[in-house]
Inverse folding.
């Protein structure tokens, strides 16, 4: 007799298989839906992060581009400013050195003329030597006026050399307005010497100085490229001796300062001129040092040194007297102290002053100067005064 599973067992097996298949299908569908949802959420999250990163990268690129643009603009500005600075200033500074050297020689020659007893004869109204001395002493001051008018649109901080030269030029310019200050510098000018001073006032107001210097400026160049220059001596002499001219009017307060010039009767003016000589030396020193200075090396302002022989070249007495050495050395000492103090008060120049050099001194001792004057009295004039 054949045995077989009951019919219901087969039915249960079929149902179980169907239920399993259904469960598997249901689980598979739910798993697929869950995974799809997870994938969609992850894709959305990644897209958001990508967008945020892209935005951040774009912002950084924008900042970098802006920074590079600013740096490039700064480089372009510095290049253009330096180019303009050199074009505008270098020709004027070149002439300043030339004019300064000539002015120093003329100041020394003025003392020599007095020493030879020819001062009063050569420093009279409209005399050639009087007018030429005034012209050569005032000509370097025009450089400051030209620099001041040209530097309004440029940055002096870009070049230490030009900045120092400009400030030294300014210091030179103001000497003519600081007669009282120079007279009070140690050693102070003795009261009796100030009483003998002729004229009583031996400096200028800033307004008088500006008027005189501006009158020496002439237009030059072309309409497309207008420039300014200093008058020639021929133009100066012709106009200052002709009545009714602007130049004669502008120098109406200047000429009397130099009439019958003598350091004994013009002690304040003489100190002013010696101070100018020292400033010219500082300008010349800075010019000579510039080519040897390395990149980034700052200027160093040391005092102008004057040996006994060099100081003796400015003596105004021909007598071989030790007494003359004292007022001669005092005029140099006062001028030295004035230049040192004024430079120290100038914010730009104070950065570059070599304090050790200034404290060490730059002038000879009195005994050495006295010895030099005694020997100078025995030397031919040309040998002593030769440059």
């Amino acid at each position: 007799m054949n045995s077989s599973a009951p019919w219901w067992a087969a039915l249960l097996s079929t149902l179980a298989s169907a239920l399993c298949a259904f469960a598997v299908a249901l689980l598979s569908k739910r798993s697929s839906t869950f995974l799809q949802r997870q994938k969609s959420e992850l894709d959305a999250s990644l897209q958001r992060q990508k967008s945020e990163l892209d935005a951040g990268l774009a912002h950084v690129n924008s900042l970098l581009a802006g920074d590079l643009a600013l740096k490039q603009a700064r480089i372009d500005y510095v290049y253009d400013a330096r180019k303009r600075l050199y074009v505008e200033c270098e020709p004027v500074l070149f002439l300043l050195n030339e004019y300064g050297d000539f002015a120093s020689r003329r100041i020394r020659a003025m003392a020599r003329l007095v020493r030879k007893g020819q001062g009063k004869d050569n420093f009279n109204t409209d005399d050639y030597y009087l007018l030429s001395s005034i012209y050569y002493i005032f000509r370097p001051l025009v450089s400051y006026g030209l620099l001041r008018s040209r530097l309004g649109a440029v940055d002096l901080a870009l070049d230490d050399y030009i900045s120092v030269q400009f400030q030294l030029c300014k210091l030179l310019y103001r000497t003519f307005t600081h007669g009282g200050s120079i007279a009070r510098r140690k050693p102070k000018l003795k009261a009796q010497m100030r009483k003998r001073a002729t004229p009583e006032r031996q400096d200028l107001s800033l307004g008088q100085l500006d008027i005189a210097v501006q009158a020496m400026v002439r237009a030059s160049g072309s309409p497309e490229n207008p420039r300014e220059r200093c008058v020639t001596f021929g133009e100066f002499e012709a106009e200052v001796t002709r009545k009714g001219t602007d130049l004669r009017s502008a120098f109406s307060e200047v000429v009397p300062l130099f009439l019958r010039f003598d350091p004994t009767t013009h002690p304040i003016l003489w100190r002013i001129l010696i101070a100018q000589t020292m400033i010219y030396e500082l300008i010349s020193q800075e010019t000579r040092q510039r080519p040897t200075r390395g990149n980034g090396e700052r200027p160093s302002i040391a005092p102008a040194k004057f040996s006994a022989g060099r100081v003796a070249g400015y003596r105004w007495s021909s007598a071989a007297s030790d007494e003359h050495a004292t007022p001669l050395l005092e005029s140099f000492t006062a001028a030295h102290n004035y230049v040192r103090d004024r430079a120290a008060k100038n914010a730009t120049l104070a950065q570059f002053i070599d304090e050790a050099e200034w404290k060490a001194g730059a002038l000879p001792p009195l005994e050495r100067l006295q010895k030099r004057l005694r020997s100078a009295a025995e030397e031919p004039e040309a040998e002593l005064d030769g440059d």
Remarks:
- Strands lie at 217-221, 226-230.
- The first strand starts at residue 217 and ends at 221.
- The first helix runs from residue 7 to 115.
